[in-house]
């Protein structure tokens, strides 16, 4: 909306594009979610204006002269179960859902990063790998490698997503190697037999190459999902010394030899064990092949990500998984919690991305594997035939994904106890500030940028994204 002064300039012909640019920088667009669900990630009709006015309210100072890490994106895991539900939708319904999730125009939320499971995760209907063999058989050269099950749902869904956003970043993570490579012929637990390190390396190489042939570029892989949690189905125990050995003697050299540019990321587990990635990165022979470390937050404190960054500031930090759930009939939406802990917490502690778990499930949170699959893992969207509803994970990611596009850089802000926040400068020169009101009351506060002040108010339990 033009101010009265700007309108007069416009109708008299004095108003220029440079005038409009200055005006745009003096106003902030606001997207809001309220705890009582009266507003759910909606653009507010009136922009807020920066002025020279000062008051006594708390201040969030945004300083784009002080920069931190660049951002790769925000999104979810596209589990096999997610893809199974999406592919069964009618073509028009599926197209509408995927556009809302992955396009950036209008009210679409612009998801820019996806995590895939290499083989099955615990949110597949059944356990599989890409080289399943009867007990006693082996395939050291991966001659029988086949993306088989993923060709039915994950791959066709990914092709439709990439048609909407060809620049989408994709991370692949294995839950278990083929059973014949393990110390126990069981999808749950066990360890990778040393004599199959080379065969498993070839398995990773084939995965990246075969997905590329399908038109699906894998930007990064993690070596093992939750390597210290062997009770999931599927899963694998992989201690830090073994992961270091696997990377430096097998996976790293094999990727280099095959000219594979896919990033290698270690750990991929909770923030309570920063020693795991640090000890691997302390090994210079392993470190030279590693892009960074990935984290979950089912244990530990998000600040541990900064501990790893400080120990090895030349290596990247990623946030690869967190389950975010709510009761389907919940009166309030507790959006402050995931935004404060993940969107704000992970990025303020150097993470280049934030991924929540997972993209889609049905009203019963199915499918999931038996003997250890997750029966409470709600999707960002719940799909019921062609209908879908949006859940807490949808809204929490949306507040960042739509505006903080890949290539954005985190910039400095002061963090207030009741108003946790984080800010970014986007590739097109815009500024994005995400604020959550975690206090017990509504909060009025000042956003100060380049000597000018914008006065904003947030109800308790609300989250807002400000863009200027």
From TrEMBL:
Pfam family, one: Glyco_hydro_30C
Presence of the UniProt keyword Glycosyltransferase in the record: no
Entry annotated with the keyword Magnesium: no
Single GO MF descriptor: glucosylceramidase activity
Keyword annotations: Glycosidase, Hydrolase, Signal
GO biological process: glucosylceramide catabolic process
Signal peptide range: 1-24
Domain Glycosyl hydrolase family 30 beta sandwich: 407-466
Domain Glycosyl hydrolase family 30 TIM-barrel: 71-404
Gene Ontology terms: cellular component: membrane
Family: Belongs to the glycosyl hydrolase 30 family.
Protein name per UniProt: Glucosylceramidase
Record lineage: Bacteria, Pseudomonadati, Bacteroidota, Sphingobacteriia, Sphingobacteriales
């Amino acid at each position: 909306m033009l101010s009265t002064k700007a309108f007069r300039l416009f109708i008299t012909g004095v108003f220029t594009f440079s005038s409009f640019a200055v005006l745009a920088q003096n106003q902030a667009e606001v997207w809001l979610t309220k705890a009582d669900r009266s507003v759910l990630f909606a653009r507010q009709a009136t922009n807020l204006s920066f002025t020279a006015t000062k008051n006594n309210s708390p201040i969030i100072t945004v300083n784009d002269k002080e920069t931190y890490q660049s951002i790769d994106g925000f999104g979810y895991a596209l589990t096999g179960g997610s893809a199974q539900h999406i592919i069964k939708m009618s073509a028009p319904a599926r197209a509408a859902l995927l556009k809302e999730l992955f396009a950036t125009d209008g009210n679409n939320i612009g998801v820019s990063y996806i995590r895939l499971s290499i083989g099955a995760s615990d949110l597949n209907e059944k356990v599989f790998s890409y080289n399943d063999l009867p007990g006693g058989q082996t395939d050291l050269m991966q001659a029988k490698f086949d993306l088989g099950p993923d060709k039915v749902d994950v791959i066709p869904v990914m092709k439709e997503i990439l048609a909407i956003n060809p620049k989408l970043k994709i991370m692949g993570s294995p839950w278990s190697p083929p059973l014949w490579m393990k110390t126990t012929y069981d999808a749950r637990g066990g360890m990778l037999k040393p004599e199959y390190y080379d065969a498993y390396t070839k398995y990773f190489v084939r995965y990246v190459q075969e997905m590329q042939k399908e038109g699906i570029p894998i930007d990064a892989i993690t070596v093992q999902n939750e390597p210290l949690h062997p009770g999931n189905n599927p899963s694998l125990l992989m201690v830090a010394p073994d992961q270091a050995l696997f990377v430096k003697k097998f996976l790293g050299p094999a990727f280099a030899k095959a000219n594979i540019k896919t990033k290698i990321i270690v750990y991929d587990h909770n923030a309570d064990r920063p020693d795991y990635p640090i000890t691997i990165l302390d090994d210079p022979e392993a470190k030279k092949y590693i892009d960074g470390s990935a984290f979950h937050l089912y244990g530990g404190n998000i600040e541990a990500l900064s501990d790893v960054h400080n120990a090895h500031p030349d290596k990247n930090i990623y946030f690869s998984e967190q389950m975010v759930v709510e009761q389907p009939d919940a009166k309030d939406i507790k959006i402050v919690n995931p935004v404060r802990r993940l969107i704000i917490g992970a990025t303020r502690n150097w993470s280049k991305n934030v991924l929540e778990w997972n993209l889609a499930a049905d009203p019963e949170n199915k499918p999931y594997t038996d003997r250890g699959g997750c029966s409470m893992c709600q999707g960002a969207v719940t799909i019921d035939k062609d209908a879908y509803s949006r859940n807490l994970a949808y809204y929490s990611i949306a507040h960042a994904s739509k505006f903080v596009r890949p290539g954005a850089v985190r910039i400095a802000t002061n963090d207030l106890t009741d108003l946790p926040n984080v800010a970014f400068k986007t590739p097109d020169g815009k500024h994005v500030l995400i604020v959550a009101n975690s206090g017990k009351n509504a909060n009025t506060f000042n956003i100060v940028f380049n000597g000018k002040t914008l006065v904003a108010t947030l109800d308790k339990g609300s989250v807002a994204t400000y863009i200027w």
